[in-house]
Amino acid sequence: MKNLFFIFISSIIMFTSCNDKYEPFSNPTNRVTLNMMDEDNGKTQLDDADIYIDRNMNFTTSKNFMFCNYGQATSLYDIEDGDPDMREITYSIPIVPQEGYLAFPLHYSERFPSGCCAIAINKQYYRLWVEKWIDNEEASHIGAVVHAAQYTPRKFNLPEWESDVAEIDLINNGKSSTSFKIQNKNCEAMLADGSLYGNYKIERTKSKDSYTEFTFSIENGGYEVFLRKRFPIKLRVKNSFTLVYIKFNVNN
């Protein structure tokens, strides 16, 4: 097996300039071009992700990665954050020359009530772009020229991971609520703790050109509510999500 990611080989493409929004995570040496042979012809693997091409010309992996098709792209740097429709993600995906893909571990992602999937803003994912097929003497596909790099999701003005976005004054066995704004008009929210959904509710109460307002409420909270110091909420904009908290202030 070949493990070529982060290694300078003759096929690495060097770019003299890039638009900032396309800059890879960490340093630019993680941009690489691979002659990626399928599993019957060498099984070239991409880093520890174990992403490879199977004999049916699909991107796949043995490490619980998910794939999303971006669609037609002219290069790796034509694949922008937030654009692919991530309702459709799969463990294996057919590769097509001149198309782009996202790849990420399943546990780095979250599916929201809208059906959209998003990647955590504090994690890394791969962008992949298939340039062309590699064929044998019989003109059968045995691999592909694949460009790859690691990125972090764009934040889209989402709050920092695990930050507090609001406080709420709790009243024993009563109803309490608080509101907060996110500086993006297309934000989606969901409760992140499924064990106590009956007592908690998050609603989008206002959406303006520059922000979305949410109201978090608790009704008839029992003893377990008063043991908690804060409650987790997940917020999504396009293909990025963050984990934030509502801080509890207990009043008898």
Question: How is this structure best described in words?
Answer:
- With 252 residues, this protein is mainly beta.
- The chain has two domains: 150 residues, no CATH class; 89 residues, Immunoglobulin-like.
- It is built from one helix and 19 strands.
- The strands form five sheets. Strands 9, 10, 13, 15, 18 and 19 form a six-stranded mixed beta sheet that branches. A five-stranded antiparallel beta sheet has the order 2-12-11-8-6, with no helix packed on it.
How is this fold's topology laid out?
Blueprint (H helix, E strand, L loop, with lengths): L1 E2 L28 E6 L6 E2 L6 E2 L4 E3 L4 E8 L20 E2 L4 E7 L3 E3 L5 E4 L4 E11 L5 E11 L11 E9 L3 E8 L4 E5 L8 E8 L4 E8 L3 H5 L2 E8 L2 E12 L1
Parallel strand pairs: 1-3, 10-19, 13-19
Antiparallel strand pairs: 2-12, 4-5, 5-7, 6-8, 8-11, 9-10, 11-12, 14-17, 15-18, 16-17, 18-19
List how many beta strands DSSP finds. Answer: 19
Roughly how much helix do the residues carry, as a percent range? under 10%
Number of helices, counting only DSSP H or I runs of 4 residues or more: 1
Whole-angstrom Rg: 22 Å
Broad structural category? mainly beta
Strand content: over 45%
Low-confidence stretches: 2-28
**Sheet with the most strands?**
6 strands, mixed
How many domains comprise the coordinates?
2
Order of helices and strands, N to C? EEEEEEEEEEEEEEEEEHEE
The outline comes out as elongated
How would you state the average pLDDT, rounded?
84
End-to-end Cα distance: 63 Å
